TrEMBL record:
<dbReference type="InterPro" id="IPR036890">
    <property type="entry name" value="HATPase_C_sf"/>
</dbReference>
<keyword id="KW-0472">Membrane</keyword>
<feature type="transmembrane region" description="Helical">
    <location>
        <begin position="140"/>
        <end position="158"/>
    </location>
</feature>
<dbReference type="GO" id="GO:0016020">
    <property type="term" value="C:membrane"/>
</dbReference>
<feature type="transmembrane region" description="Helical">
    <location>
        <begin position="40"/>
        <end position="58"/>
    </location>
</feature>
<feature type="domain" description="Signal transduction histidine kinase internal region">
    <location>
        <begin position="178"/>
        <end position="256"/>
    </location>
</feature>
<keyword id="KW-0812">Transmembrane</keyword>
<protein>
    <recommendedName>
        <fullName>Signal transduction histidine kinase internal region domain-containing protein</fullName>
    </recommendedName>
</protein>
<feature type="transmembrane region" description="Helical">
    <location>
        <begin position="70"/>
        <end position="89"/>
    </location>
</feature>
<dbReference type="Pfam" id="PF06580">
    <property type="entry name" value="His_kinase"/>
</dbReference>
<dbReference type="InterPro" id="IPR010559">
    <property type="entry name" value="Sig_transdc_His_kin_internal"/>
</dbReference>
<keyword id="KW-1133">Transmembrane helix</keyword>
<dbReference type="GO" id="GO:0000155">
    <property type="term" value="F:phosphorelay sensor kinase activity"/>
</dbReference>
<feature type="region of interest" description="Disordered">
    <location>
        <begin position="99"/>
        <end position="134"/>
    </location>
</feature>
<feature type="transmembrane region" description="Helical">
    <location>
        <begin position="12"/>
        <end position="28"/>
    </location>
</feature>
<dbReference type="InterPro" id="IPR050640">
    <property type="entry name" value="Bact_2-comp_sensor_kinase"/>
</dbReference>
Length: 373
């Protein structure tokens, strides 16, 4: 983390800028007929009072009065601060009013006459004569006090906004993690339920195929138990899981079902991907693209066009029941496909493209997913 990216460093820098701005505002005010030493003593007192007003306003008045909608009390507080600072500065100005040059001064110390510096200016010793104490309100002191109070209110508002934004961000992350956990918890039992049903059907037809299916299922369960609970898994591991799933489903397909599965043995570039992201789309094809009487066709193609893009294409036969216009990805895919759409929105916002369209003169149904990793 760099220096400027630290919140503490940014806060310290902001306060340093405020101190410098306040110092420039205070120490460039008219001299009011005071000698150099007495002028800086008076303005140093004003500087300290202004800083106290800034922090009391920002740290106490704004949180306890303004944010609690006690507006009248807050306005009275501001008026009291302005009156106190102006009165204190006016009192100090009268006490420190310099006697005539060479006369007795505060504590018995004589003040040297102000030196003259070439050119006009508000500093002590300039050629422009400084005004002595007046009975009215010093506009410069009033301006600096109002500036300090305004800065205090603004800083308190900005800091509260930052805290609220940080709290919202933390809550949003916690909500996102909880929602993703819930979605994965729904997808995994859904997948296991369908797979166990398939193996049960195989035990009635061919025991040897059922044993091979159980071996593949054990590898898949290892992926579900140890891979799916993590946020991301290697792409190669996800391809192996998908290949086991397709081979497991193929064991119960009739000969009239044409299955084409294409996937690289090893990814061109190893990247991380959310676990079990492809399986619901493939499951949807086996669930709704196979007929007990009519010839069926399922094409599954997984490829990696570039090092950071992965494309999945699933195409299956579209039967007239239900009608084409009523086929919907969420309705046809059930919980698994609907949750996968939601996971894509949460995990890859703006970084994926999913199209679900009829193909081949409305006799097939095609799903294309392109991920930018």
């Amino acid at each position: 983390m760099t220096f400027l990216s630290s919140r503490r460093a940014q806060t310290g820098l902001l306060h340093a800028v405020i101190w410098v701005l306040l110092g420039v505002t205070v120490f460039t005010q008219p001299t009011m007929g005071l000698s150099t030493a007495r002028y800086f003593l008076l303005q140093a007192g004003l500087f300290v009072l202004s800083l106290a007003a800034f922090y009391v306003n920002a740290d106490w008045a704004v949180p306890h009065l303004l944010y609690r909608r006690r507006l009248v009390a807050y306005l009275l507080f501001l008026l009291g601060i302005v009156a106190a600072v102006v009165f204190a500065h006016r009192t100090g100005q009268r006490l420190l009013a310099a006697p005539r040059p060479g006369g007795p001064s505060l504590g018995g110390i004589r003040d040297a006459p102000p030196r003259r510096a070439p050119g006009p200016g508000p500093w002590p010793g300039s050629r422009v004569p400084s005004r002595g104490p007046t009975d009215g309100v010093n506009p410069a002191v009033l301006f600096s006090t109002l500036l300090v109070l305004g800065l205090g209110t603004s800083v308190a508002a900005v800091q509260r906004g930052q805290r609220d934004a940080l709290a919202r961000s933390v809550l949003e992350q916690e909500k996102l993690a909880a929602e993703l956990g819930m979605l994965k918890a729904q997808i995994n039992p859904h997948f296991l339920f369908n797979t166990l049903n398939n193996i049960y059907a195989l035990t009635l037809l061919d025991g040897e195929q059922a044993r091979r299916s159980l071996q593949r299922l054990s590898r898949m369960l290892r992926h579900v138990l140890y891979g799916a609970p993590t946020d991301q898994v290697p792409l190669g591991q996800e391809i192996s899981f998908l290949r086991d799933y397709v081979e497991l489903m193929q064991l119960r397909l009739a000969k009239r079902v044409q299955l084409i599965f294409t996937a690289p043995d090893a990814p061109a570039a190893e990247v991380l991907i959310a676990p079990m992201l492809f399986q619901p789309f493939v499951e949807n094809a086996f669930k709704h693209g196979v007929s007990a009487t009519a010839p069926s066709r399922i094409v599954i193609e997984l490829r990696q066009p570039t090092a950071h893009t992965v494309e999945l294409r699933v195409c299956n036969t579209l039967f007239p029941d239900p009608p084409v216009e009523e086929v919907d990805a969420e309705e046809s895919g059930g919980i698994g496909l609907a949750n996968t759409r939601r996971r894509l929105d949460l995990l890859y916002p703006g970084a994926y493209r999913l199209t679900v369209t009829p193909a081949n003169d409305h006799h097939e149904y095609e799903i294309c997913l392109l991920l930018m990793l």
